[in-house]
Each structure stands twice: as structure tokens, then as C-alpha cells.
Write a structure and sequence with these properties.
This protein is α/β, with parallel strands linked by helices. The protein folds into 2 domains: 212 residues, Isopropylmalate Dehydrogenase (3-Layer(aba) Sandwich), CATH 3.40.718.10; 129 residues, Isopropylmalate Dehydrogenase, CATH 3.40.718.10. 41% of the residues lie in helices and 19% in strands. The protein is built from 12 helices and 12 strands. Helix 1 crosses helix 10 and helix 1 packs parallel to helix 12. The protein is globular. 48% of the residues are buried. The structure holds 3-isopropylmalic acid (IPM) and magnesium ion (MG).
Length: 360
């Protein structure tokens, strides 16, 4: 059966990195018998430029009809002055919400070939492999009411609402526990239960669901401590589960531990395993169009798609092996290069395809 993949390149370096992932898909089609139909659609600033909306109706429809979505990046300085509803970020947030992609998996893996890229001492990060499971469709990102209002004295007040219903906590807890079962069976739930009622409920529900997973060792940590522990002794973590905003922040920290945010893929899943796959890094407007971006996070996102949404774990493994082989060959884009010699976006993509073909 052919897989329907929606391809949303977006803004900045998005089109360049997506082109390399598409090359990789073509290689899978030609040499590995993989069947896929690709449908391209506009999102973010590109969606706004095309049809006045960061998430055009046609794009949402294409995504709804697909088995999985491959996503590049969104945003750019030319869109910063637009009203909030029309900004590129809104396109991504609406897409996550419309497709109910509540479970966001953000691995932070240190590639042994890149051990020196981390800003932490090598012994603190050697072998690092953390999975952050971030709740993605609730919390303060979507809570109502929100806005900027005028007080009686004429002063303006900004406000947002941090809410989690039990079913939202339950499903993200289950998702994280399922993942922990496939890994080292340790889960740390991060909250701010010493201050927030919403965290008090979060903790209670996580503990309740955890009761169904006696094999998983569950702990709880306040978010301020978690941010400290992540840079103090990151290898203490296996799986972390946390709310939308805390996960946004902690996943950037965790990404930096690896020293190579250009290497990190992510998956955002609904309850049936349909997902959106995107690199953890953003649209990098400063290097857009220059052929300098690292396409590996996007290519590795494709591997996650094959594993989590398309039931092709062997192909996912092959892509990951090919990426490892390319790193072994010494190929580096500028962001991960230790010396001044580096390759461009398409050279890196070509190298992955060649390495993949060698495994066919
Ligand atoms: C991320 C990004 C997004 C978020 C932005 C672009 C809306 O920072 O995916 O982490 O805050 O979720
Ligand atoms: Mg973020």
C-alpha cells in the first residue's frame, strides 16, 4: 500500500532541508521498494504569501488526508510585524491542534562522532540518550481566556491561562510510559507542583496512570531543578514527560547538550500514531538560501516517520545507519564541523543517499 506523505517545506532553510529528505525518499522508492505519494503544500510565511493564511485550508486538508506530514521550518523576520493570528508560528500551532498531535517526542542523542560538539565536558554527555515527551496541544499555549485587556485605571494587562484537564494529562502520561517501556523504563515527570494547582493535578494523574506500568520507575521533579539537572548530570534521565511550555524550554536545553541541534529530529503524534515530523531546529533565516543548512535533522525526522507512523522500522534503521556512516566518513556541515572545511546542504544529502544505496 502506498503511503501518503504531505510535504510542508515552509520558510527560511525549510525548502533546502526538505529537498534532501525528499531525495532520501526517492532513494527508498528506487532501491528499497518503498511506496509513497508526496503532496506538497504551503505553511507558515509561505502559506501567508500564497493565500493570506499561515495554515491555508487546502494545506490542512492535504495533511488530514495523509498518513504522515514531513515538515521543514517556519518563520522569518519579514513576518514579525503581522498580527499574531497571521504569523507563521500560528500555522504550526493550528496544525498541531487541528490534527490533535498531543504527544511530541524530542530525542536528545549525542552522536559519538560529534562528542566534542557539546558545550559540556565530554564525560558528562558521552552516550547521552534522552527522550523528552512534551504535551503539545494544551496548557498555556492554547488555554482560554488569553489576551491583552485594559484595566479600570487604563493600564493594559496581558494574560494567558494554564489549564490541563485530566484526560489530557492521562493520554500524555500513557504515551510517555509506553515509550519508557521501549527504553530503559525510567520516567521523570517535570512540573511546578510546589506552586501551581495545575501541576498538583498533573502529578496525581501521572501517578495514577503509572500504576498501570509497574515496570517503569517513575519520579517527579520541579522544572527549575530539572533545568539545572539537565546541565549538571544529564545522563540521569531516560524519558522526561512534561507540559507544553516546560517542554518547549527543556527540549531546547536538551538539544544544546548534544551540541548539534542540526542533528535532532522530532515527532508529534496523535492517538492513532499519525504524525508530523520536523527537525527540532528552526528556519534559520540568516543562512537561508545559502546551501549551508544541515539536512540531517530532517532526514532523521523521516526515519522517525518510517518508525512511528508508517510501520517501516527497518527502513528507519537503514537511514540512521546511513547517517552514522556519513558522519564516520567525516562529512560535516558547518554547524557541526570542528575544522574550517565543511560541506553544503545538498552534498550532505547526496552523501546520505549514497550511504543508503550502499545498504540496499
Ligand atoms: C517549537 C517552537 C514552537 C513552539 C514555535 C515556533 C511556535 O519553539 O516547536 O519548539 O513554541 O512550540
Ligand atoms: Mg521551541
Amino acid at each position: 500500500m502506498s503511503n501518503k506523505i504531505a510535504v510542508l517545506a515552509g520558510d527560511g532553510i525549510g525548502p533546502e532541508i526538505i529537498a534532501e529528505a525528499v531525495k532520501t525518499i526517492h532513494c527508498l522508492q528506487q532501491d528499497f521498494g518503498f511506496e509513497a505519494d508526496l503532496e506538497y503544500a504551503a505553511i507558515g510565511g509561505a502559506g501567508y504569501d500564497q493565500s493570506g493564511q499561515p495554515l491555508p485550508a487546502e494545506t490542512l486538508e492535504i495533511c488530514e488526508q495523509s498518513d504522515a506530514v514531513l515538515f521543514g521550518a517556519i518563520g522569518g523576520p519579514q513576518y514579525d510585524e503581522l498580527p499574531r493570528e497571521l504569523r507563521p508560528e500560528k500555522g504550526l500551532l493550528n496544525l498541531r491542534s487541528s490534527l490533535s498531535l498531543f504527544s511530541n517526542l524530542r530525542p536528545a542523542i549525542l552522536y559519538p562522532q560529534l562528542a566534542d560538539a557539546s558545550s559540556l565536558k565530554a564525560e558528562l554527555v558521552a552516550g547521552l540518550d534522552i527522550m523528552i515527551v512534551r504535551e503539545l496541544t494544551g496548557g498555556i499555549y492554547f488555554g482560554q481566556p488569553r489576551g491583552i485587556r485594559e484595566l479600570e485605571n487604563g493600564e493594559r494587562q496581558g494574560f494567558n491561562t494554564l489549564v490541563y484537564a485530566e484526560h489530557e494529562i492521562e493520554r500524555i502520561a500513557r504515551s510517555a510510559l509506553d515509550i519508557a517501556m521501549l527504553r530503559n523504563r525510567r520516567l521523570c515527570s517535570v512540573d511546578k507542583a510546589n506552586v501551581l494547582e495545575v501541576s498538583e493535578l498533573w502529578r496525581e494523574v501521572v501517578n495514577r496512570v503509572a500504576g498501570e506500568y509497574p515496570e517503569v520507575e517513575v519520579s517527579h521533579m520541579y522544572v527549575d531543578n530539572a533545568s539545572m539537572q539537565l546541565v549538571r548530570a544529564p545522563k540521569q534521565f531516560d524519558v522526561i514527560v512534561t507540559s507544553n511550555l516546560f517542554g518547549d524550554i527543556l527540549s531546547d536545553t536538551a538539544a544544546m547538550l548534544t551540541g548539534s541541534i542540526g542533528m535532532l529530529p522530532s515527532a508529534s503524534l496523535d492517538k492513532n500514531g499519525k504524525g508530523l515530523y520536523e527537525p527540532v531546529h528552526g528556519s534559520a533565516p540568516d543562512i537561508a538560501g545559502k546551501g549551508l543548512a544541515n539536512p540531517l535533522a530532517t532526514i532523521l525526522s523521516l526515519a522517525l516517520m518510517l518508525r512511528y507512523s508508517l510501520q517501516q522500522p527497518d527502513l528507519a534503521d537503514q537511514i540512521e545507519v546511513a547517517v552514522g556512516n556519513v558522519l564516520d566518513q567525516g562529512m560535516r556541515t558547518a554547524d557541526i564541523a570542528e575544522t574550517s572545511s565543511s560541506v553544503g546542504t545538498s552534498e550532505m544529502g547526496d552523501a546520505v543517499v549514497a550511504a543508503l544505496r550502499a545498504l540496499a
